[in-house]
Amino acid sequence: MLTDPDVEETSTPAFSSLRSKFEKLAVDTSPNISAHRFSSSHDLLAPEPGSPRPRAMSNTADDLKASASTRSLRAASSSSDLKLGGKRPPPPPPARSSRGNSPAPSASASPLIHPVADSSAIPAASLALDNVHPKTGLLSRKPPPPPLSHHDPFDDSPGPGVSSLINKFGNVPTAPSSQLLSSSRSPYTSLRVSSHSSATLSPSVNNSAFAPESNAVADMPRAPRHSFPLSQPSKPPNPRIHVQSVAAVDLDMESPLPSHRPPLPCRKNGPVNEQNQEAVHGRSASSDSITSNESGVASADSSTSQGEMSTLPVLSPPTRPPSHPPPRPPPRSKITMPLRPPSVASITSVSSSPSSGTPPPLPARKGFPGSGDDSLGRRVPPPRHRSTFEIESQHSSVYTPNSTPLQTSPTDGAPITLPPPITTSSIIQPTERKAFGAHPPPPTRIIALGDKLPPARRLPSGSSSESEEDDLKIKVDLLPDSSRSSRRPPIVDSHNYSEFSIWVPAYTGVVAVSGHTVAVAAHHHLKIYDLSESDAPLHDLDARSMGLETKTKDFKITSMEFRPATKAADRGSFLWVGTKDGHLLELDIRGGLVNVVGMKPIHSHTVTHMFRHGRSMVTMDDTGKVLVFTPDPDGDVDAGLAYTQSRVVRIAEKQEFAKILGGYLWTSARDPSGNGAGNTSRSPIVRVYDIFTPGSAGKSLLPTEHLGTVTSGTVMQSQKDQVFLGHEGGNVSIWSLDTEDGIPQCREVVKVSTSDVLSLEGVNDRLWAGGRKGMIAAYDVVPRPWVMTNNWMAHQKLPVLKLVVDTWSIEKLERLSVYSVGRDERLRFWDGLLGTDWIDKELLKRETEFSAFRDLNVLIVSWNLDSAKPDALKGTAENVKFLQEALSSVDSPDIIAFGLQELIDLESRKMAAKTVLLGGKGKNPDGAISQRVTTSYKKWYDQLVHAVRLAMPADTPYTVISTESLVGLFSCIFVKDTQRISLKQVAITTIKRGMGGRYGNKGGIVARFVIDDSSICFINCHLAAGQSHVRQRNADVAAMLEDKELFPESGSIQEPLAYVNGGDGSMVLDHEIVFLNGDMNYRIDLRRDAVVADVKAGNYAHLLSQDQLMKEMRNNRGFRLRTFMEGPLIFPPTYKYDRQSDEYDSSEKRRVPAWCDRILWRSREPSRVQQLHYRRYEVNVSDHRPISAGFRMTIKSVDAEPRAHVKRELEVVWAEHEKSLLEAAYRFYGEQAML
Question: How far, in Å, CA of 570 to CA of 563, rounded?
């Protein structure tokens, strides 16, 4: 049996003995200092005979004698104790804290807490420091002399560092588990009173008595830190006792102790090796570090609440700034046992020799990796509090929840329980601790001293910035298809006078419409219009002049609605008005006078909403008070404010959105948290109330995902069992009313816009939505994905605040009228059935009846030059004959379009700056290139003109109608002189996409003209580069196709017959035929070796399945090129080659070959464009191969008179069709009680 000579095997004193000594110490405490008191304090702390080891004491002669052979701990007294004297009551016991089924005693309940020597036990010379300022006294104290060195048989470390201390005292003699029940305390922990001054006393005291004490501290085995924190007990009245670590309850001990080392604490910060353990614990190997550590502890304790620290068993804190509070400990994994059992490896190592035990490595820290001494640049973490059971859980004994009460002192409070041991077979391994919270891990890249700094992070720069990727995904990938939407506003002509003269103040104005009658209120003014008689107000009322002002000073109209009427003549004649102070008024606006037929101060707060539902009227204020005015269902008397009794319904207060949908009141409030992007909870809360059924309770609903605030809601005729809610952020949530339990449920969320949906209304079979940019869009919600059928500018690029269907217009105007109110303070009326679009679609079907057609040949050549000059076309036959071969690929082309990219070196700042400064100046009116552009553009222009003259017959001259350059892009369009007389509205412009639209290294040149009555558009583009920048390329395409101010509007007074979808020619998609060519940079999603192998084998089908452009057309529902077409790719990829070679890129980057150069087209009528060829050319002066495509397109010439005749016929057909649609709408709104 192995024993340790440093541990004595005598029994510990009884707890009652310690209790009596503690009381005696308190009684003997006196401000008078004497040597007798000093020695008596040592007698109080002296162990009784039979103690297994000496108590930790200070200033005793026995300690000096035993320092050479026994490693005892010196006692310590706090600096505050030196200044405090007198008798203090003992602390009360704290509340018991339990873990699992077995209560774990707190620190105050432990019988092993040692008293602290009072100020009376300190020599008089040392108390001279008490008269000095505390900080000054501490700084004036001198450190103790170095500790006495002596040989230790277990000393295998170079110095008394922490790692060496662990090596010395990590292995202790073994003891059978049968004697652990009689063990009085843990062999690995010893009680230590927090001391700050015992090592720095005045030199007048015999320093020889303190030098061994310092040595004992230096050689003391450091107790391991534990993962279980101690619960904070209440503050005791006597903060005198500071405990470093708590041992187990005293029991008899008859056998050796276990030989394995206690388990080291688990850390999240990574492994700590032997070399940096000293830095981890904030200790050094010298004796000076002990003194500095003691002073550091003193400064830390001086700023800590003594009431809290007196009851907390803590380890000796490392050196750290006192201003930093200790961080919260990480969360622990819950285990089924009340104690933390040791690992099986630690139990099996009980029988091993003292030298065979090896402490487990600590986990890696999140600090500076690879540093041997990490004490620099890092703050040492504070110590962890420990409980008695946490210390015992490190021993080889494993406990069960079954516990046995132990004998306690009367001052202990609740009895202390200690579970009995169990066998190792029932050990439950502790679960792995999880990281605190769900936060992502911090960055691990640390720049050490002398390391090279990383490159500067670039700001977001246009199409090639990865920081825009998420935003581009929303803008492009998730929106409905708008490529075929009509831009013509659906203007209604049902009124005799225009509504343009009606002014509605933004945000404060209130509008109510019934047929020709329009009521507009702003503050205390009320205007009544009748657009069948005049565009001027019939009544301009001032509430104050009419005597309608109430007792409040601020009379303001906040809501209005026309009340229902049984008689058709009375509908739209009685107007209900709600005010800011809660009054309700009913006005009769028939005839030439306005009469107040009812007035009640029935609401005590602002009336925010007013609804008409069936024969009932509903009013609502901002406190959640809802009044329902319902007339007698068996009578023919309408709801009147003066004679109809109201019923009160209570709902949630401050509901910004409120509307009756499907017979229920739907409300929602703004999220007080602000609906930030970081909020992941499902919101907002939608509340639904059945206000027409007395006694019914409201329901709170949540969408399927986090959405913005609800702004609007509606129901649709084609989707009667669904409710649509508009949200900030551009989403529309769809709620099903047909559920098993009758509670509405969110079924789907559709993204329709990049900005907020401010207004929403279901009109016929379309869902109308108003946004912040003044646009109103109509969506067909039946297909998946949704299709935007109409999109027009309604309110001059300002928010559309309100969108409402006038249901009474069906019987009053025989139209389905929709009105909108915008931030531009205007009221607009729209045709809800979109009759103009119906007529246009029918005209296209009968276009052959009034149009003549002819064919034209078109040749398009596209090439990325990689800054090659025209004189480089030499050497091989393919280089020399390239232009001749390309121009002869189409028989007598009527239109020739050259699109060149990277005509200059884009990496040359001088060349790019010269192009930017001179490229757009001094253009010739005939389309020829400017003389002020760079030499490269001029050389290529001359080369192309010369090649066309050589290739084409002399009797068929061509003229350049458009040229343009944009930082490497160059477009040049030739037209036969015989076709030039048919051209009109010729225009050309550029679109910059580089650096967020500020630089033209990426972008496009757009040219258009009208020939006969067909509009043709050519786009030469260079999209964002990069293998993975697909979304940036998609965004570049969308920006070019959807720019609404690309060209000036058509100046034609008559209907623009050459443009489609109701456009005026200002957008690309307004043109009937569009050609798109250039370096689009769409790549192949395969490895380079696989692509090269497929190219050599001619396996183009496999490559096309991974082509990014093809994949976007197939899978991306919002891809703007889905309506474009492309011919079959039967030639090898055109990118990227080594110059003057037929080998693909062999540089260090070894780029993947791809079909970057493409030619696509789009036609309103697909049969009117036929591709003649699609090929590439083997010119090796660039890293791209040039391509060309030939087309035969059909253009039309419209005969105006036959067209007008066909249109009149279609208007008659529409009138009959409109009646059927109005009847269906009238039935639907009747079912919804909206009439």
Answer: 9
Alpha helices in 773-881 (DSSP H): 809-812, 835-845, 877-880
For residues 1002 and 1040, give the distance between their C-alpha atoms in angstroms, rounded to a whole number.
12
pLDDT (0 to 100) of residue 326: 57
Strand partners, 992: 1003
- Cα 60 from chain centre: 65
525, 829 contact by CB (below 8 A):
no
**Given this model, what pLDDT does residue 853 score?**
96
| Closest by Cα among 965, 719, 727, 1016 to 860 | 1016
| Calpha distance 291→303 (Å, rounded) | 19
Tell me the CATH number for domain 476-494+653-672+681-840+1199-1234: 2.40.128.630
d(CA 374, CA 380): 9
**Which two structure tokens, joined as six digits, stand for 901?**
């990219």
Band of the pLDDT at 785, cuts 50, 70, 90? confident
- Report how far residue 1019's alpha carbon sits from residue 1075's, in angstroms, rounded to the nearest whole number: 6
CB atoms within 10 A of CB 1114: 10
User: What are the structure tokens assigned to 905, written together?
Assistant: 């070196």
Q: Encode 128-150: b = buried (16+ Cβ within 10 Å), e = exposed.
A: ebeeeebeebbeebeebeebeee
Q: Is 952 left (phi over 0), alpha (psi -120 to 50) or beta?
A: beta
* Domain-wise residue ranges, the chain: 476-494+653-672+681-840+1199-1234, 506-651, 852-913+930-1198
Separation CA 546–CA 589 (nearest Å)? 14
Tokens of 119: 């100020």
- Classify strands 1073-1079 and 1014-1022 as parallel, antiparallel or unpaired: parallel
Phi and psi angles of residue 969, each rounded to the nearest 5 degrees, phi first: -85, 145
pTM of the model: 0.62
The Cα–Cα gap between 407 and 16 comes to 10
Whether 26 shows a pLDDT value over 80: the answer reads: no
Structure tokens at 1203: 């067209």
Other beta carbons within 10 angstroms of residue 455's beta carbon come to 6
Round the average pLDDT of the chain to a whole number and report it.
73
Provide the CATH topology of domain 852-913+930-1198. Answer: Deoxyribonuclease I; Chain A (3.60.10)
Q: Which of 637, 593, 515, 1186 minimizes the C-alpha distance to 864?
A: 1186
Give the DSSP per-residue string, 47-110.
PPTT-SSPPP-SS-HHHHHHTTT--PPPP---HHHHH--S--PPPPPPPPEEETTEEEP-GGG-
Best-predicted range by mean pLDDT (418-422, 425-429, 597-601, 688-692) = 688-692
> CA-CA distance, 1234 to 662, in Å (whole number)?
10
| CA 151 to chain CA centroid, nearest Å | 63
Q: Which among 214, 209, 184 has a CA at the least distance from the CA of 199?
A: 214
Tens digits of per-residue pLDDT, 822-869? 999 999 999 999 999 999 999 999 999 999 999 999 999 999 999 999
CA distances from 495 to 392, 569, 730, 1165 (A): 91, 19, 33, 37
The confidence score (pLDDT) of residue 198 equals 38
- Local structure of 950: helix, strand or coil: helix
pLDDT in tens, 157-207: 444 555 555 555 554 444 444 443 333 344 333 333 333 433 333 444 344
- β-bridge pairing 766-771 and 584-588: unpaired
Higher-pLDDT residue of 1104, 171: 1104
Nearest Cα neighbor of 1128 from 1187, 1071, 1069, 1073 is: 1187
The class level of CATH for 506-651 reads mainly beta
Amino acid at 1122: R
d(CA 760, CA 706): 19
Max CA distance (Å), the chain: 133
- Tell me the β-bridge partners of 778: 768, 790
Evaluate if residue 975 carries a pLDDT over 70.
yes
How far is residue 4's CA from residue 357's CA, in Å, rounded to a whole number?
A: 15
Rounded to an integer, the average pLDDT of 215-228 is 42
- CB–CB of 300/322 below 8 Å? yes
